[in-house]
Amino acid sequence: MRLIKLTAISAAVLASTAALAAEPVIVVDGNDTVVYEAQPASYAYNADAGVVRNTTGAIFGGTKTLFQTAINPASVSAEVGTLGYGANIGWSVNEKTELQAGWAGGDVADLFGGDFDANDVNYDVDTDFSNPYLGVQLRPAGNWFTMGAGIIVPDNDIDVRANAKDGNFRIDDVDYDADEVGTLEGSLEHRNKLAPYATVGFRPNITNNFGVFGELGAAYMGKTDATVRAAGNGTNPIEAAAAANAAEQELEDKDYLEWMPIVKVGATYRF
Protein backbone atom coordinates (compact mmCIF):
# COMPACT_ATOMS: atom_id res chain seq x y z
CA MET A 1 0.00 0.00 0.00
CA ARG A 2 2.89 2.36 0.84
CA LEU A 3 4.41 1.65 -2.57
CA ILE A 4 1.14 2.52 -4.33
CA LYS A 5 0.77 5.70 -2.28
CA LEU A 6 4.37 6.75 -2.96
CA THR A 7 3.94 6.10 -6.66
CA ALA A 8 0.76 8.20 -6.87
CA ILE A 9 2.30 11.13 -4.97
CA SER A 10 5.44 10.98 -7.07
CA ALA A 11 3.50 10.99 -10.33
CA ALA A 12 1.38 13.98 -9.28
CA VAL A 13 4.35 16.06 -8.15
CA LEU A 14 6.37 15.17 -11.23
CA ALA A 15 3.54 16.09 -13.60
CA SER A 16 2.83 19.41 -11.92
CA THR A 17 6.47 20.50 -11.99
CA ALA A 18 7.48 19.21 -15.40
CA ALA A 19 6.68 22.45 -17.17
CA LEU A 20 8.55 24.65 -14.70
CA ALA A 21 12.23 23.60 -14.76
CA ALA A 22 14.65 20.70 -15.17
CA GLU A 23 15.32 20.46 -11.40
CA PRO A 24 15.25 17.13 -9.52
CA VAL A 25 11.98 16.29 -7.76
CA ILE A 26 12.36 14.68 -4.34
CA VAL A 27 9.42 12.76 -2.84
CA VAL A 28 9.58 11.64 0.80
CA ASP A 29 7.04 9.31 2.44
CA GLY A 30 8.04 8.13 5.86
CA ASN A 31 11.45 6.50 5.53
CA ASP A 32 11.29 6.23 1.76
CA THR A 33 12.89 8.86 -0.48
CA VAL A 34 12.69 8.85 -4.27
CA VAL A 35 14.45 11.33 -6.60
CA TYR A 36 13.13 12.01 -10.12
CA GLU A 37 14.46 14.19 -12.92
CA ALA A 38 11.69 16.57 -14.09
CA GLN A 39 11.23 17.10 -17.80
CA PRO A 40 12.01 20.73 -18.80
CA ALA A 41 9.55 22.82 -20.78
CA SER A 42 10.28 22.70 -24.49
CA TYR A 43 9.07 24.63 -27.50
CA ALA A 44 9.07 24.03 -31.24
CA TYR A 45 8.86 26.50 -34.11
CA ASN A 46 6.28 25.56 -36.75
CA ALA A 47 7.55 27.17 -39.94
CA ASP A 48 4.38 26.38 -41.91
CA ALA A 49 2.10 28.04 -39.36
CA GLY A 50 4.61 30.69 -38.36
CA VAL A 51 4.00 30.17 -34.64
CA VAL A 52 5.92 28.87 -31.63
CA ARG A 53 4.23 25.93 -29.88
CA ASN A 54 4.68 24.46 -26.38
CA THR A 55 5.55 20.77 -26.84
CA THR A 56 6.08 19.82 -23.18
CA GLY A 57 4.18 16.70 -22.16
CA ALA A 58 2.97 18.31 -18.93
CA ILE A 59 -0.39 17.91 -17.30
CA PHE A 60 -1.28 21.53 -18.20
CA GLY A 61 -0.35 21.09 -21.86
CA GLY A 62 0.18 24.38 -23.71
CA THR A 63 -2.01 26.43 -21.34
CA LYS A 64 -0.23 28.37 -18.59
CA THR A 65 -1.47 29.01 -15.08
CA LEU A 66 -2.54 32.55 -14.24
CA PHE A 67 0.52 33.07 -12.04
CA GLN A 68 2.94 31.85 -14.72
CA THR A 69 1.26 34.08 -17.30
CA ALA A 70 1.50 37.18 -15.09
CA ILE A 71 5.20 36.88 -14.24
CA ASN A 72 6.44 35.58 -17.59
CA PRO A 73 5.62 37.88 -20.55
CA ALA A 74 5.87 36.04 -23.85
CA SER A 75 6.92 38.95 -26.07
CA VAL A 76 7.75 42.62 -26.47
CA SER A 77 6.93 44.60 -29.62
CA ALA A 78 7.71 47.99 -31.15
CA GLU A 79 5.10 49.61 -33.41
CA VAL A 80 4.36 52.66 -35.53
CA GLY A 81 1.00 53.66 -36.95
CA THR A 82 -1.94 56.00 -36.83
CA LEU A 83 -2.20 55.76 -33.03
CA GLY A 84 1.42 56.88 -32.74
CA TYR A 85 4.80 55.39 -32.04
CA GLY A 86 4.93 52.88 -29.21
CA ALA A 87 5.45 49.43 -27.77
CA ASN A 88 3.56 46.63 -26.07
CA ILE A 89 4.11 43.59 -23.88
CA GLY A 90 2.33 40.31 -24.61
CA TRP A 91 1.40 37.43 -22.32
CA SER A 92 0.66 34.09 -23.97
CA VAL A 93 -2.46 32.39 -22.62
CA ASN A 94 -2.23 29.46 -25.02
CA GLU A 95 -1.12 28.74 -28.59
CA LYS A 96 -3.89 30.87 -30.09
CA THR A 97 -4.43 33.63 -27.51
CA GLU A 98 -2.21 36.47 -26.30
CA LEU A 99 -3.01 39.33 -23.93
CA GLN A 100 -1.41 42.71 -24.67
CA ALA A 101 -0.74 45.93 -22.78
CA GLY A 102 0.82 48.82 -24.67
CA TRP A 103 1.10 52.51 -25.41
CA ALA A 104 1.30 54.53 -28.63
CA GLY A 105 1.49 58.27 -29.07
CA GLY A 106 3.39 61.32 -30.26
CA ASP A 107 2.84 63.72 -33.15
CA VAL A 108 1.26 61.71 -35.95
CA ALA A 109 -0.59 64.48 -37.81
CA ASP A 110 1.48 63.87 -40.94
CA LEU A 111 0.14 60.31 -41.10
CA PHE A 112 -3.29 61.86 -41.70
CA GLY A 113 -1.95 64.30 -44.28
CA GLY A 114 -1.37 67.17 -41.86
CA ASP A 115 -4.70 68.85 -42.66
CA PHE A 116 -8.39 68.22 -43.33
CA ASP A 117 -11.42 70.00 -44.76
CA ALA A 118 -14.58 70.89 -42.85
CA ASN A 119 -16.94 71.88 -45.66
CA ASP A 120 -15.28 74.87 -47.36
CA VAL A 121 -12.56 75.54 -44.78
CA ASN A 122 -9.19 73.81 -44.73
CA TYR A 123 -7.56 73.27 -41.33
CA ASP A 124 -3.93 72.53 -40.50
CA VAL A 125 -3.59 69.94 -37.72
CA ASP A 126 -1.02 69.54 -34.95
CA THR A 127 -1.34 66.49 -32.69
CA ASP A 128 0.12 65.07 -29.51
CA PHE A 129 -1.36 61.60 -28.98
CA SER A 130 -1.29 59.38 -25.90
CA ASN A 131 -3.08 56.04 -26.35
CA PRO A 132 -2.47 53.37 -23.69
CA TYR A 133 -4.40 50.19 -24.48
CA LEU A 134 -5.29 46.70 -23.28
CA GLY A 135 -6.28 44.01 -25.73
CA VAL A 136 -6.27 40.41 -26.84
CA GLN A 137 -4.78 38.91 -29.99
CA LEU A 138 -6.28 35.71 -31.40
CA ARG A 139 -4.96 33.30 -34.03
CA PRO A 140 -8.29 31.62 -34.88
CA ALA A 141 -6.74 29.30 -37.46
CA GLY A 142 -3.47 28.79 -35.58
CA ASN A 143 -1.46 30.47 -38.34
CA TRP A 144 -0.29 33.98 -39.33
CA PHE A 145 -3.81 35.48 -39.46
CA THR A 146 -4.81 37.43 -36.34
CA MET A 147 -7.87 39.15 -34.92
CA GLY A 148 -7.57 41.72 -32.16
CA ALA A 149 -9.91 43.61 -29.85
CA GLY A 150 -9.56 45.75 -26.77
CA ILE A 151 -9.88 49.14 -25.11
CA ILE A 152 -7.90 52.35 -25.64
CA VAL A 153 -7.74 55.07 -22.98
CA PRO A 154 -7.24 58.10 -25.27
CA ASP A 155 -5.67 61.36 -24.13
CA ASN A 156 -5.09 63.08 -27.45
CA ASP A 157 -4.38 66.76 -28.05
CA ILE A 158 -5.58 67.94 -31.48
CA ASP A 159 -4.92 71.59 -32.36
CA VAL A 160 -6.31 73.17 -35.55
CA ARG A 161 -5.79 76.40 -37.49
CA ALA A 162 -8.08 77.58 -40.30
CA ASN A 163 -6.62 78.60 -43.66
CA ALA A 164 -8.28 81.53 -45.42
CA LYS A 165 -9.04 81.17 -49.13
CA ASP A 166 -9.06 84.23 -51.39
CA GLY A 167 -9.01 86.44 -48.29
CA ASN A 168 -12.12 84.84 -46.72
CA PHE A 169 -13.23 82.07 -44.39
CA ARG A 170 -16.33 80.50 -45.97
CA ILE A 171 -18.20 78.90 -43.07
CA ASP A 172 -21.75 77.56 -43.37
CA ASP A 173 -22.14 79.36 -46.73
CA VAL A 174 -21.17 82.71 -45.20
CA ASP A 175 -17.98 84.57 -46.16
CA TYR A 176 -16.04 86.14 -43.30
CA ASP A 177 -13.29 88.60 -44.23
CA ALA A 178 -9.94 87.29 -42.99
CA ASP A 179 -8.69 90.80 -42.22
CA GLU A 180 -11.68 91.45 -39.97
CA VAL A 181 -11.56 88.03 -38.32
CA GLY A 182 -7.82 87.57 -37.86
CA THR A 183 -6.67 83.98 -37.20
CA LEU A 184 -9.10 81.15 -36.36
CA GLU A 185 -7.48 78.48 -34.20
CA GLY A 186 -8.68 75.99 -31.65
CA SER A 187 -8.69 72.42 -30.37
CA LEU A 188 -10.70 69.22 -30.73
CA GLU A 189 -11.47 66.63 -28.07
CA HIS A 190 -13.25 63.30 -28.40
CA ARG A 191 -15.89 62.46 -25.81
CA ASN A 192 -15.04 58.80 -25.22
CA LYS A 193 -12.79 58.21 -22.22
CA LEU A 194 -12.66 54.52 -23.17
CA ALA A 195 -12.50 53.71 -26.87
CA PRO A 196 -13.20 50.13 -28.05
CA TYR A 197 -11.20 48.90 -31.03
CA ALA A 198 -10.99 45.90 -33.35
CA THR A 199 -8.34 44.85 -35.87
CA VAL A 200 -7.37 42.11 -38.28
CA GLY A 201 -3.82 41.44 -39.36
CA PHE A 202 -0.93 39.10 -39.87
CA ARG A 203 1.77 38.11 -37.36
CA PRO A 204 4.34 35.67 -38.75
CA ASN A 205 7.38 34.57 -36.76
CA ILE A 206 10.58 34.78 -38.81
CA THR A 207 12.61 32.72 -36.30
CA ASN A 208 11.98 31.21 -32.88
CA ASN A 209 12.43 34.65 -31.33
CA PHE A 210 11.78 37.32 -33.96
CA GLY A 211 8.63 38.19 -35.89
CA VAL A 212 6.84 41.03 -37.65
CA PHE A 213 3.22 42.14 -37.75
CA GLY A 214 0.74 44.43 -39.43
CA GLU A 215 -2.81 45.37 -38.42
CA LEU A 216 -5.82 47.20 -39.88
CA GLY A 217 -8.89 48.28 -37.96
CA ALA A 218 -10.64 51.14 -36.20
CA ALA A 219 -11.35 52.59 -32.76
CA TYR A 220 -14.54 54.42 -31.85
CA MET A 221 -13.39 57.70 -30.25
CA GLY A 222 -16.86 59.23 -30.01
CA LYS A 223 -18.31 62.59 -30.99
CA THR A 224 -16.12 65.68 -31.14
CA ASP A 225 -16.16 68.76 -28.91
CA ALA A 226 -14.53 71.80 -30.54
CA THR A 227 -13.22 75.06 -29.12
CA VAL A 228 -12.39 77.83 -31.62
CA ARG A 229 -11.20 81.36 -30.93
CA ALA A 230 -10.28 84.34 -33.08
CA ALA A 231 -6.71 85.42 -32.45
CA GLY A 232 -4.33 87.86 -34.04
CA ASN A 233 -5.11 91.40 -35.16
CA GLY A 234 -8.61 91.16 -36.61
CA THR A 235 -10.22 94.55 -37.15
CA ASN A 236 -13.81 93.56 -36.35
CA PRO A 237 -14.29 91.79 -32.98
CA ILE A 238 -17.99 91.13 -33.62
CA GLU A 239 -17.27 89.53 -36.99
CA ALA A 240 -14.41 87.56 -35.45
CA ALA A 241 -16.62 86.16 -32.68
CA ALA A 242 -19.33 85.17 -35.17
CA ALA A 243 -16.78 83.40 -37.38
CA ALA A 244 -15.30 81.53 -34.41
CA ASN A 245 -18.73 80.33 -33.25
CA ALA A 246 -19.67 79.20 -36.76
CA ALA A 247 -16.36 77.37 -37.20
CA GLU A 248 -16.79 75.66 -33.84
CA GLN A 249 -20.20 74.31 -34.84
CA GLU A 250 -18.94 73.19 -38.23
CA LEU A 251 -16.03 71.30 -36.69
CA GLU A 252 -18.32 69.50 -34.25
CA ASP A 253 -20.58 68.51 -37.14
CA LYS A 254 -17.51 67.18 -38.97
CA ASP A 255 -16.71 64.75 -36.10
CA TYR A 256 -13.07 64.56 -37.15
CA LEU A 257 -11.64 61.09 -36.39
CA GLU A 258 -14.82 59.91 -34.65
CA TRP A 259 -13.82 56.52 -36.04
CA MET A 260 -10.04 56.52 -35.67
CA PRO A 261 -8.45 54.35 -38.37
CA ILE A 262 -5.88 51.92 -37.01
CA VAL A 263 -3.03 51.08 -39.36
CA LYS A 264 0.19 49.87 -37.81
CA VAL A 265 3.26 47.74 -38.44
CA GLY A 266 5.93 46.52 -36.08
CA ALA A 267 8.43 43.91 -34.96
CA THR A 268 8.24 41.41 -32.09
CA TYR A 269 10.80 39.64 -29.93
CA ARG A 270 9.58 36.45 -28.23
CA PHE A 271 11.23 35.09 -25.09
Q: What does the average pLDDT come to?
A: 82
Strand order of the largest sheet: 5-6-7-9-10-15-16-18
What CATH architecture would you give?
Beta Barrel
Total tally of structural domains: 1
Q: Let me know the largest β-sheet.
A: 8 strands, antiparallel, barrel
- Please report the distance between the alpha carbons of the first and last residues: 45 Å
Q: H/E series, N to C?
A: HEEEEHEEEEEEEEEHEEEEHE
Gyration radius, rounded? 28 Å
**Helix segment count?**
4
CATH class: Mainly Beta
Contiguous low-pLDDT stretches (5 residues minimum) are 1-22, 55-62
> How much strand?
over 45%
Determine the structural class based on helices, strands and strand pairing: alpha+beta
How would you summarize this macromolecular structure in one to three sentences?
16% of the residues lie in helices and 52% in strands.
Topology:
Blueprint: H1 2-17, E1 24-29, E2 32-37, E3 43-46, E4 51-54, H2 66-71, E5 75-81, E6 84-94, E7 97-106, E8 115-118, E9 121-138, E10 145-152, E11 157-163, E12 168-171, E13 174-177, H3 178-181, E14 183-190, E15 195-202, E16 210-220, E17 224-231, H4 237-254, E18 259-270
Antiparallel strand pairs: 1-2, 3-4, 5-6, 5-18, 6-7, 7-9, 8-9, 9-10, 9-11, 10-15, 11-14, 12-13, 14-17, 15-16, 16-18
How would you explain this protein's 3D organization?
It is a single chain. A hairpin with a 2-residue loop joins strand 12 and strand 13. 16% of the residues lie in helices and 52% in strands. The strands form four sheets. It has an eight-stranded antiparallel beta barrel with strand order 5-6-7-9-10-15-16-18. It has a two-stranded antiparallel sheet with strand order 1-2. The chain has helices spanning 2-17, 66-71, 178-181, 237-254, and strands at residues 24-29, 32-37, 43-46, 51-54, 75-81, 84-94, 97-106, 115-118, 121-138, 145-152, 157-163, 168-171, 174-177, 183-190, 195-202, 210-220, 224-231, 259-270. It has one domain (73-270): Porin, CATH 2.40.160.170. Residues 1-22 and 55-62 have low confidence and may be disordered. With 271 residues, the chain is of the alpha+beta class. It has four helices and 18 strands. The two termini are 45 Å apart. The protein is elongated.
